[in-house]
Amino acid sequence: MRYVLIECFVFIFLSVVANLCLLFCIFLFVCNCLYSLVCFKIYVFSCLFSILCIFLSVFKFMYFL
């Protein structure tokens, strides 16, 4: 059970990291529009990765309860 909780926290941590990348990307977009295409790709990837991490952590937690 402890292993499952650690794994859930790892997924949540990865989700937070993805959201921080997203915020950094928005900051770059505001400062310089030259990075807009790269930032859009990072934005989409961060959103998908964040959703995936949250889904996996909830699924694993519910599966082992």
UniProtKB/TrEMBL annotation:
The chain crosses the membrane at residues 9-30, 42-63. This is Uncharacterized protein. Keywords: Membrane, Transmembrane, Transmembrane helix. The lineage of its organism: Eukaryota, Metazoa, Ecdysozoa, Arthropoda, Crustacea.
